[in-house]
Amino acid sequence: MAYASSETQVRVRALATPPPRRVVPEGVFDDFAWCQSDTLEWRRPAGVWDGSAVVDGADPARMVFVTRRRSDGSSAAPFLPREPAAVHAFGLGLTDEEALAPWAIDHATDELHARRVRPRDVLWLAADNLNALFWGLHDWAHFHNHGPFEQRAWTELQCDAAALAWLWANRADIPLSASAWERVRGEALALSRARFAAEGLALDETLVSAPRVQALLGAAARATRS
Ligand SMILES: [Zn+2]
Q1: Among 83, 151, 187, 206, fewest CB within 10 Å belongs to which?
Q2: What is the CA radius of gyration of the chain?
Q3: Which pTM was predicted?
Q4: Distance 17 CA to ligand 1 centre (A)
Q5: What residues of the chain score a pLDDT lower than 50?
């Protein structure tokens, strides 16, 4: 699906986000795939895209989840902490729309799960650079896979793997070259190395090798770890 508003020149895509297989041990998540992810509405200004943005673990700039409205104009997500969306996303014609507060990703992960609210019913993603899109997809994985976040390095590894798998699946539409994808995979892997080291854990890097990540999506979304 692709369409653009002539007034604001906004590029809108429904990114395919089918459920990824679990690559981390059972127990890292307490309700993995509680909601089967399917699509993420992604918007960016038609003429703005930075595909060279580095995934370095810093807070992603120009990335925010805009909260949808009900037909009566009220927020579809009154239970989420919100901020003015136009503070975080530019060139999209946003005026008085609200967005999930960027500090409240964990809160949203818990609340969406507790209330059984399908993420795409209340959120869409604004991101105008590759780093922002990576983290938006990473958070999209959190929103569909609930965990207590006690095993942080493992939790983040799964969400990184999902984000990479979704980037790969949508690479023609983003657009993203195979070499750019591999660059992002390497940057995400470096973050995982640091997270595992910080927890004194060994990281089996083959879990997120390019072939495994590229094959992560499929019908066996709830497959157990081999
Ligand atoms: Zn995360």
Answers
A1: 206
A2: 17
A3: 0.93
A4: 16
A5: 1, 6, 220-226
